[in-house]
Amino acid sequence: MKYPLFISFLLICFSLKSQTIITGYVLDETGDNTLIGVVVQDCNKTFGTVTDEFGYFKLIVDSLPVCIKFSYIGYEAKSITLKTSDKTNLNIKLKGIVLNEVTIKSTQKNPDEQINVTNIAVEKLKVIPSIAGEPDLMKALAIAPGISLAQEGSSVLVVRGGNPEQNLILFDGIPLFNPNHLFGFFSAFNPSAIGNIKVYKGDFPAEYGGRLSSVIDITTKEGPKKGYVNNEFTIGTLSSNVYSEGPLSKNKASYAIGGRISYLGLILLPQQLIVKSNESGTYTNYWLYDVNANVNTNVGEKGKLKLSFFFNNDYFSQFDETNDDVSEITFKWGNTAAGALYRLPLNDTTFLTAKLNYSGFRFIANLENKNKVDDLNDVYTDKSTIGNLNASVGFDRQISKRYILSYGLSNDITFIKPNKLHFVSKINGNIENELDTFSNKFMCLVPWAYIDNELFLTRKLKMHIGGRAGYFYNDGYSEFLLEPRISLSIIPNDFTAWNFAVTTMSQPFHYLSLNSSTLPNEIWLPATESAPVESASQMSIGWFKNFHKADLKVTAEVYYKNMHNLVSFVPGQSSLFNASSDWTERIIPFGLGQAYGAELFVEKDFKYLNLTLEYTYGSSKRRFGGLNNGNYFPSKYDITHDFGITAGLVLTDKWSLQTLFVYQTGRPATLPSAVFIDPSGFPSYIFDEINGNRLPDYHRLDFSFIREKQISAYKFSKWTFGVYNVYARNNPMYLEISYTGLPINTYPPIGYESYVTQQTVFKFVPFLSYSLKF
Amino acid sequence: MRYLSKYLFVVFGLYILAACSKRLDNYDLEYSGDRLVVFGNISNENGVTIYLTHTLPPTGTYYLDEIDVNVSAAIITLLENNTVVDTLVEPEPGLYITSYLPTPGNSYSINVVADGFETTFSENVIFPQPVNLEEVVYETDFENINGDPAFSLEPVFTDDPSNDNFYSFGFRYYIEDTVILYDVFESPDDAPFGCSPGIFKFNNTFLKLYSDNCFAGTTFPFKFICSKVYHLENIVPFEKCEFECNVISKELFDYVANISETEGIELLLSDPKLNYTNITNGFGVFWAQNDTTFVYHF
């Protein structure tokens, strides 16, 4: 078996002669915007490629003449025939077609590219109903199989039984650590600014690494390099956002900038004013905002440079004043990221990509207790930060029509201050006591190299073979990291594909989070000798079929994933304001994880109706020494059955209706298995098992009506209104055990009634938003 | 910090009209079966005192005067340095005692055999050295934070820097021979996080617990403000106060820290804690306590 493969490889490598390389850009009809992800195929659909983030493509053909077809969602397909090799550098313009929201279909791709990847059109994600009426693209991704939300209402994703921190979230190629607002309930990505989202669930391209479960690759929109400035303004129930894009220098450079701010703080202001005037009571304050921007410019004749910037910030405070005592707790967190991406075709067959990125995340908690009479003031500050500086260079080289070689190098420098606690106590303004604890600092180096060989072994057989190798170094601890990856695609015809993939991933940074929370208050930690680098291997088999005559597409996949060296908090432990021990004493290292599942995705288009159906059967387990007697137990993301259906219906030329129904098996929960009366006479619950119980099953139905109107030639308005959880199901956010002393209002009680309480947060939530494009 | 989670819910409630908490009456949790619960210690003043009860189903209604959780007729043996040295007697249902006195530096454990339960035993606990008190400063004739007449007790001692030490301070007010439990405040302020996990009630005494995290190798930084008011119900003045200054083994500190919210702020949706226990096949805690008691007559 070895020799035929090897011979095939050599034949492929040396089969370049007499072939023609066709390159170029694909643009919209104005020529202002490059189009990303356009499928470029020969008209017989035997081979093809897609345009990259700069709209660039490269196709090698055996001989001329050749017919090439360009197809892209929302645009009329275009075919051209090249007869001679005089002009093989093309600029193709595609004409846009007017699409109602619900007629948006998945991008037509090579059939094997539909497996292990979720790439739902952003315009389709934008119309999925969401809690505040404003599109949340991250939440909307949960309509895809194998992807679920970390908890109800959250924008934090869980992919194939992994943990949220195991997702590599790339914003224009820059890794982000915690891009969420409002304790994880809203993603920090401005929907107006996003051009494309691609989620790799398995069969990861070799250039990506550093996380175990998925790669969420988010690309922002580019502004037009000529023509008019486009603006968009959206006002919603919770926040408003603005977006603007336009040329900076005609035909050379463009900009795009977006910002969003919430008015939670304004809504809470009256409460704050009342408390301040009464000098008694409690108020809460919350502000959040995010900004993202990019500049695209041509560099020289062929080079392109994209500069991207991302910033988000959340501020939460709770103030309490009783008698002479004042306490205030404040949380602040956010990301700052900036990056430069440079692409240059070195020649007809080789592409250079260079990146330089910085990404940082900070979390600061502050607790202040004050006594106004005695002028006592205690302040606790807990700070965790992580910063990552990355430089990389990569090359894509089309060796022959049947062989594409990609390789590159990168270096990561990561700075971590996991959990710095500062305490200062003042009396009459004078410092009485000051304490600094756990001010550990880490600087970690991770140089990487990757290589990927994309081999078209036959017309019906394609193979990726390659992987990544790296070296992790942290203060005397080092580890060699090897991530081999291989996949084989069988493409019997233009509409069918099978894919078999085995991938490995490693994650040199741990994330400590509470077992049942997605609050951003937890900490990133470097791998150490006592908590080594996490690793995962995944095997997947997928099948895709496009029943094109019936406008029906079906994807079915199965996967099995093993994870090693996971880290967890000791139950009941948190990092916050904990001076009794540092993080090394509060973790359980060397955890194991196991996840497997089967996924089904069906999409059917009717004339006025688009239907999607997803179903995932999954299992996700963890095993940590000392927990549940060292046995495997369900992870908090263990959802056995996950079913979702979306329907988009065109009602009139202005009105459309979107509906979403979701059903999920209840998630695991940790509840007591016994109680005893402690020496103080109060019930004390016994928790024998982590995640030994289940929440009740989850289901809900959402709908939204969308009204779009063209006000003038360049002005469009859009109203969206609807209801989240239409039939007001009491879906549990979590369960907790509670007791009531008996008789009620008697102290001390002589008896107790002990029962389970369910907390529901999102029950029948109406929403409304208005958007204006001009 | 439970209030934090409540107010987060208020925030969400402003936007989400129908956020709610619902009691699930039909959601009965599976009971893991009766297991022994052991609370007790070995001290230089009282010997061994053990309260033996059993667990109950996690959901349901219990009237303490109707259910009998005490476990009687158990055989509890005391081991010193892994050798049986005494068997406890049961003067009243569920209470087991012996006057066997411990020696600092020796290890002690108990073994419990009771009908219908697995044999249960504690881990070894080391009996600590006594606190090396220089003096207890007693001040009177001032007011506590509520404006009531009060006195203060300040134990003056220096922590032994060569060991991790754990302390408890107990207060008992008496009206004739009846013990009345009453609040005691620290001064100058609440102990910082990680220094004091909280209060534990045992044998009619509130024990305020401390580790030496905040004053390792230095002088104990707090004094205790005790009210001198009349007992509220009987309008009878207190007659005396007993003040205990104890060195305890780490097990009690760990038990209280485990159930206390000061071990990291308990945030919204935080994980429940698995119970700390040093009792195998059961729950509760067995610890060693070297007592030094003072009596103040009013």
Question: Brief description of this entry?
Answer:
The complex is a heterodimer of chains A (774) and B (298). Chain A is mostly beta strands. Chain A has 4 helices and 48 strands.
Describe the structure.
The complex is a heterodimer of chains A (774) and B (298). Chain A is 5% helix and 60% strand. Chain A is mainly β. Chain A folds into two domains: 18-97, Immunoglobulin-like (Sandwich); 103-773, TonB-dependent receptor, beta-barrel domain (Maltoporin, Chain A). In chain A, the strands form ten sheets. Chain A has a 22-stranded antiparallel beta barrel. Mean pLDDT of chain A is 83; it is low at 1-17 and 99-107. Chain B is mainly beta and 298 residues long. Chain B has two helices and 23 strands. Chain B has helices at residues 2-15, 250-259; strands at residues 20-24, 36-43, 47-54, 60-63, 75-80, 83-87, 89-92, 95-98, 107-113, 120-122, 125-126, 133-143, 149-157, 166-175, 178-180, 184-187, 198-202, 205-211, 223-227, 240-248, 279-280, 282-290, 293-297. In chain B, the strands form three sheets. In chain B, strands 2, 3, 7, 8, 14, 15, 17, 18, 20, 22 and 23 form an eleven-stranded mixed sheet that branches. Chain B starts with a helix and ends with a strand. The model of chain B is unreliable at 1-11, 13-18 and 261-269 (pLDDT under 50). The interface between A and B is large, with 88 and 77 residues.
Salient structural properties:
heterodimer; A: about 775 residues; mainly beta; Immunoglobulin-like; Maltoporin, Chain A; 2 domains; 22-stranded antiparallel β-barrel; five-stranded mixed beta sheet; 4 helices; 48 strands; globular; disordered N terminus; B: about 300 residues; eleven-stranded mixed beta sheet; six-stranded antiparallel beta sheet; 23 strands
Report the helical percentage of chain A.
under 10%
Strand content of chain A: over 45%
C-alpha termini separation of chain B = 37 Å
The main β sheet of chain A shows up as: 22 strands, antiparallel, barrel
Detail the poorly predicted runs of chain B: 1-11, 13-18, 261-269
Instruction: Name the structural class of chain A.
Output: mainly beta
